[in-house]
Amino acid sequence: QLQLQESGPGLVKPSETLSLTCTVSGGSISSSSYFWGWIRQPPGKGLEWIGSIYYSGTTYYNPSLKSRVTISVDTSRNQFSLKLSSVTAADTAVYYCARHRQSIVTTEIDNWGQGTLVTVSS
Amino acid sequence: SSELTQDPAVSVALGQTVRITCQGDSLRNFYASWYQQKPGQAPVLVIYNKNNRPSGIPDRFSGSSSGNTASLTITGAQAEDEADYYCNSRDSSANRLVVFGGGTRLTVL
Description:
By secondary structure, chain A is mostly beta strands. Helix content of chain A is 0%, strand content 53%. In chain A, the strands form two sheets. In chain A, strands 2, 4, 5, 6, 9, 10 and 11 form a seven-stranded mixed beta sheet that branches. A four-stranded antiparallel beta sheet of chain A has the order 1-3-8-7, with no helix packed on it. The radius of gyration of chain A is 14 Å and the shape is globular. In chain B, strands 2, 4, 5, 8, 9 and 10 form a six-stranded mixed beta sheet that branches. In chain B, strands 1-3-7-6 form a four-stranded antiparallel beta sheet, with no helix packed on it.
């Protein structure tokens, strides 16, 4: 059974870079059928897609975050990573890594990590 | 702000039927998927590709679509269905793969 696990610091200082890694187990990140993405949820608020990566390294980012986001993949370790630069308190959220399928007419996120809370504070 | 619009809150009596809607221009071209999220937990996919249920999702959950509106229907709502529900779809922009609705909190009375 596929499992995704986020890891990284739970506290980041303002203006610094948030870095998280998602480790995929029970399946290969090199599958051509899936994208691998990051989604966040501020406390008490809704879900926001940050961006996604294909195993080949092709990336797609939310336009509202694009200038600050970098997503990368390490197929040898079955991991993908998120970097979000110049963080502020508004970036405090639970960050989920996830797997999603993509077709011409649909996208669905069929596997989620448990999520990790990242707080931006000095 | 979300390009997919959901009612913030909906309530249903135990055992009754409830429809949760999601509106947006992208739904004219793309199918919606639906997620259930309970407090402190990650979202769970309940409907995909307009009206398909992943393994393990009860058949009281169903999806439909018309024009710019997608709907999630729970027929015979149970107490355990009380949760937040989010819709998502692709976006018309080629680079924006995923867009979410703002979420609907379902209360089962």
